[in-house]
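Batch job 17 of 40 flagged for manual review because the log was empty.
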Amino acid sequence: MKKQLILLLTLSCSLFNNAKPAATPAVSPLTERAAQALLNLPSSNLVTHPQPTNMLSEYKQALLVDYIKNNNTTALYFFMFNHPEALKARDKNGNTALHHAASHGRLECVKDILEKYCDNCRILKYHKKRQQQWQLTAQNNNGATALHVAVIHGHKEVVQELLKYGANPNAATLKLETASNVTPLHAAIIMNNIGLLYLLLEDPKTDLNSIINIGGYLLTPLQLAQQKGFVKCAELVKYYINKQQAASIAQAAPLQVPTINKLKTDSITLLKEQTTAKQKATTRQADLENQENNTPEKPNSK
């Protein structure tokens, strides 16, 4: 009996030593019913800090990112509906839900965040337009807006959608290791992404002369492309600069035509008046001379 007990203990110890620790289960998208049950947790579980660093609990932040990453719009909807303060929450790097959606290229999530969830701001009590504006201008710890993030990760459709909602292509807020005052346009050039560069240049709000600071050197987008040796980017920027200049000249030309016409009319009128006055003066002079020639000489009274 003792031998059997010792044998069992030895076997159990060996199994325990060889056992691998259970892997932490990854957060997976929840079903609609499970999401509803989870999201009925009290709001006290949310950790709120003074603006602008509102943060969710680590678990809820992981859920939020997982829903976006897996494009689980149903679960994300219930999450945002029950906790609308999560719309302005940030992670430890300062990223909002829109930053994460832009980073992963989740177009439907981007649309939902800017449309559906901005309608559900019943706790924040912000108007939809103001909430959208906050989402589009919010910066993470590096100063990147959602548009910066979408450009850096090369998500063309997301960039197009953000521009449609009024994202600022001139937001010179991003700071990199060797550069500052980086706009989304500069980021597209740095990434050498012609497609995104075209989208940004097509936006009428884009400033073609925005300045980036690289190691103390101030460069325009064209100079940046030339310095990087990105020939196609430089040609595209130069094309839009010439196009903008041509449009400015064409717009100014009609305003100058009436002025030119008036100057011509005034000049012609002045010349006519001068000619008429000269003719009158010449005629008057001729008359005086004729009068002098026709006057008889008076006899001397001596």
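Reviewer: the log was empty due to a logging misconfiguration, but the result itself is present. The chain has two domains: 27-141, 168-264. Unflagging and moving on to job 18.
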